[in-house]
């Protein structure tokens, strides 16, 4: 998973909803060989989960739930797939995928455009993304962006976030040179023509450590409470919640167990992910998992918990900067109702 590809989805999520929403079809049920009480045949439900990009440690809990049999215990046959051409949010909203990995900003944009996405869990409790630069660029705070070259992808969100944190430091975003990174990854781009870029530390930052290329990291959440939003999140659509809540409940019960496994056993979870997706760098997966595992739940009462103020704060921030056409009705954008062990 390259930072460019992941952040291009994160920052360009407004484009994901141009595809509109069609009528989805439910996956067919299969009869298993086992029997429930009363000698009735057990029904196994096929479920499709769509990732946001290539598999990485943000997704470990899904693979753990699948490969350790947690989904099977709930009567689910789960297929984990790469995003479709229309984007994960559009595929989930239209019912072409049952569940997916998205981001709070993507769901926020979707909801304000009439797309029926609903976030059902925060994969990571706090925002682990931010602006990163090799230490030799001497970028220690947002005001140091002035006179430097930023590698991005032209999303309005990028400049809005940069301006927001630079304003706090009394700096001028117009003094940053914006460069389109194209297909280059972070490590190629900073050696070629940029000074800093927006990354997820759990992947690109950890990879920099392994390469022996230390970074200065400016987390956006450290500048503004509004920028401590949920990224990524698990999503489904309103139809699934209304018409098959037991499926959503079963899926979340098993998924929570998968993430709890990744929280409590990072080394074993990393090995499981590497086995499931052998093309990933095994050393990076292990190091990333060790860094990320404590951050899935962090200070929340349980894994997946979402707070209304987090949704409201970020939506208000977006609306004030004209990134939304209208305010978000946050109570419809997320729910904690399907998390196990409800307080």
From TrEMBL:
Q: Where is the signal peptide?
A: 1-18
Q: Which UniProt keywords apply?
A: Signal
Residue ranges spanning the membrane: these are none
Which SUPFAM superfamilies does the protein's record reference? Periplasmic binding protein-like II
A Pfam family found in this protein is NMT1
**Which PANTHER family has this protein been placed in?**
4-AMINO-5-HYDROXYMETHYL-2-METHYLPYRIMIDINE PHOSPHATE SYNTHASE THI11-RELATED, THIAMINE BIOSYNTHESIS PROTEIN HI_0357-RELATED
Output the GO biological process annotations, alphabetical, semicolon-separated.
Answer: thiamine biosynthetic process
Entries under InterPro entries matching the protein:
NMT1/THI5 (IPR027939), SsuA/THI5 (IPR015168)
Domain SsuA/THI5-like stretches: 56-269
- What's the protein here called? ABC transporter substrate-binding protein
């Amino acid at each position: 998973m390259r930072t460019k590809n992941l952040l291009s989805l994160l920052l360009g999520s407004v484009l994901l909803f141009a595809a509109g929403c069609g009528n989805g079809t439910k996956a067919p049920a299969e009869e298993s060989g086992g029997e429930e009480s009363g000698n009735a045949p057990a029904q196994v439900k096929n479920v499709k989960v769509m990732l946001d990009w290539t598999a990485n440690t943000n997704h470990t809990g899904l693979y753990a739930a699948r490969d350790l049999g947690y989904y099977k215990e709930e009567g689910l046959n789960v297929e984990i797939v790469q995003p479709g051409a229309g984007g994960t949010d559009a595929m989930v909203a239209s019912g072409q995928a049952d569940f997916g990995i998205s981001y709070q900003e993507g769901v926020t944009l979707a909801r304000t455009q009439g797309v029926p996405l609903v976030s059902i869990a925060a994969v990571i409790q706090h925002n682990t993304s931010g602006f990163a630069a090799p230490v030799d660029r001497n970028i220690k705070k947002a005001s140091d962006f002035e006179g430097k070259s930023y590698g991005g992808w032209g999303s309005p969100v990028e400049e809005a976030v940069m301006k927001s944190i630079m304003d706090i430091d009394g700096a001028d975003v117009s003094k940053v040179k914006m460069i389109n990174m194209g297909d280059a990854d972070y490590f190629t781009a900073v050696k070629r023509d940029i000074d800093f870029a927006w990354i997820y530390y759990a992947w690109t930052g950890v990879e920099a450590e392994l390469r022996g290329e230390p970074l200065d990291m400016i987390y956006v959440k450290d500048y503004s409470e509004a920028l401590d939003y949920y990224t990524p999140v698990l999503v489904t659509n309103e139809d699934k919640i209304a018409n098959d809540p037991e499926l959503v409940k079963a899926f979340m019960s098993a998924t929570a167990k998968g993430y709890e496994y990744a929280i409590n056993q990072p080394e074993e979870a990393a090995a499981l992910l590497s086995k499931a997706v052998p093309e990933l760098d095994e050393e990076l997966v292990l190091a990333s998992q060790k860094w990320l595992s404590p951050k899935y739940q962090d200070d929340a009462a349980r894994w997946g918990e979402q707070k209304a103020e987090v949704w409201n704060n970020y939506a208000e921030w977006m609306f004030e900067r004209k990134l939304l056409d209208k305010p978000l009705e946050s109570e419809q954008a997320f729910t904690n109702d399907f998390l196990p062990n409800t307080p």
